């Protein structure tokens, strides 16, 4: 048989989908599973957005569009992103529409590093697993910056400064953060900007897909820090804000790299779905009631799940600053039930209690000295949250090891 390339063999995966397949298989066997695995809103896309998609189909808007997207959506996305970020001078020609925000991770790395040249990319750990996977596949060197629980899962800017070398070409930032729900504050981002002023060779990829799900005051972008705008690839999209994950619409902005990002789309997807683009236009320009309702619901659910987790034996949980993820520390719970680590805890919780979560190692190497964590996506009803955490608490109580 012909060989598979080393690049393909090096590709990682997104374990949320791996665990989801496991959950689905157990459900097919008749097992009662409460799942907190997948990071997507559990609401339908707003009705007026659905109608816009149907209207686009009926009006025959079925063909290719320019690779950068339809003009109306680029213009709307430019105004939307600028308005969310303190009036940045984002022009329609700076915006590129993609088939979701995820492809722009690879496009950004490919546009700022050269394969095998020793170029380095700094990324958050724990973090969205596709960051590390794509850095390696694109032939760059992954350099993790560690997120700390005592900083509410931000990193110390002083640690970042020590990691930057002449080979550093890209810094990936994500706030609000997946998987921890952590934030980088305005002050922290300003400090990071001051550090980067000393390193003009470094681009920034700002993964801001959860920008509308920020619970700690007004959202602030690294691109708003003086000197950072032209160096920042701002990535946002329709998936999380308007519950449009399957519609696959992302929008990314940079005044220098927009033509390069467009060429990557021409070479890969050709363009995003025209139907989805018209629906996304309606999402941005239409009523925002549904988006605000979802944000309030996630805020309330976050308060509920954090309270319940902190009442669970052996578990402590910080309050997330955004998104819809809780990242409880289960170090003591693992000790109490004799689980070697969070992955064993996760597996036992799934098979013995019917509760599906993800382990910290699904999001990168475990941070030294930070203990064991699991991720809950609380994009689930209050009833499911209450029932699922109660099962977890019962599971721990029933399996507490007796000390001789």
Could you give the count of β-strands?
12
Report the biggest beta sheet as strand number plus sense, adding barrel if it closes: 7 strands, mixed
Report, as a whole number of angstroms, the end-to-end distance: 57 Å
Identify low-pLDDT runs: none
So, CATH architecture of the largest domain?
3-Layer(aba) Sandwich
Strand content: 5-15%
- Looking at how many chains there are and whether they match, the oligomeric state comes to single chain
Main CATH class of the largest domain? Alpha Beta
So what's the overall shape? globular
Structure, explained:
The protein is an alpha/beta fold and 404 residues long. It folds into two domains: 6-44 and 290-398, Aspartate Aminotransferase, domain 1 (Alpha-Beta Complex); 63-285, 3-Layer(aba) Sandwich (Aspartate Aminotransferase, domain 2), CATH 3.40.640.10. The chain has 14 helices and twelve strands. A seven-stranded mixed sheet has the order 2-8-7-6-5-3-4, sandwiched between helices. Strand 3 (120-125), helix 6 and strand 4 form a beta-alpha-beta unit. It is globular. The N and C termini lie far apart (57 Å). The model has no long low-confidence stretch (mean pLDDT 96).
Features:
globular; alpha/beta; single chain; 404 residues; 7-stranded mixed beta sheet; Aspartate Aminotransferase, domain 1; 2 domains; Aspartate Aminotransferase, domain 2; 3-stranded antiparallel beta sheet; 14 helices
